[in-house]
Write a structure and sequence with these properties.
The chain is mostly helical and 74 residues long. It is built from four helices and no strands. The protein is elongated and about 50 Å long.
Amino acid sequence: MSIQIDLPEGLKISNFELSMLLAVKLFEEGLISSGQGAEMVGLSKQAFIELLGKYKVSVFQYNMQEIEADIANA
């Protein structure tokens, strides 16, 4: 699938960075897996997971309520 996005003039962002931002956000929202994100940007799954930290996204997709529930059940 190919889409076209008109970006503001003067925005200095590479195609890779733009693709990575989209893949990371889709992963963060739970819409794609880490493997799908890696495929979107042309990286190995391991490399994609390692880059998630740069974008302050955890590979572990838990919210605070899930964490508290896990702790309560421990």
